[in-house]
Design a protein that fits this description.
The chain has 134 residues and is α+β, with helices and mostly antiparallel strands. The protein has helices at 42-64, 102-113, 116-120; strands at residues 4-10, 13-18, 24-28, 73-81, 86-96, 129-133. It folds into 2 domains: 1-40; 41-133, GMP Synthetase, Chain A, domain 3, CATH 3.30.300.20. The protein contains 3 helices and 6 strands; from the N terminus they run E-E-E-H-E-E-H-H-E. Helix 1 (42-64) packs antiparallel against helix 2 (102-113).
């Protein structure tokens, strides 16, 4: 079990703290929902969690198999639905090193699709993952 907590700071800003490490994240309401968009919104963090989870899960597999994916990156495009207000889609683009063999690519792409955050998303959220190689 991992604990974190949040404290409302005023002006729609929250400070979140990860108890085990003491690291902090600040959030703000988005511009299209009464905020200033000065920080990640809570729904932005869902997208950020998804990209971070994908890269981290692939890194675990890559390190175990002695594969370098240093420089790999992920981008997420979040789209909201108005009624009810919720995340409608999280489209993810992953860039991996071109030096990967076809088998390594297949294995890492499959790993990405099974990261814990991706598997935790509600089925109504579209979350396609595309891959390119640099």
């Amino acid at each position: 079990m991992v604990k974190s907590n949040a404290v409302y700071q005023g002006q729609k800003h929250c400070e979140l703290m990860h108890e085990p490490s003491g690291s902090k994240i600040e959030t703000d309401a988005p511009k299209d929902n009464a905020g200033k968009g000065e920080r990640f919104s809570p729904t932005d963090l869902v997208g950020a969690a998804l990209t971070s989870c994908i890269l981290t899960t692939m890194a675990i597999v890559a390190e175990r198999d002695n594969i370098s994916i240093v420089g790999a990156s992920a981008e997420v495009e979040k789209e909201m639905i108005v009624k009810p207000r919720r995340i409608g889609s999280l489209a993810v683009k992953i860039k991996l090193p071109a030096s990967l063999t076809p088998d390594q690519r297949r294995k890492l792409e499959e790993t990405a699709r099974h990261c814990p955050v991706h598997k935790s998303l509600h089925p109504d959220i579209s979350a396609p993952i595309t891959f390119s190689y640099f």
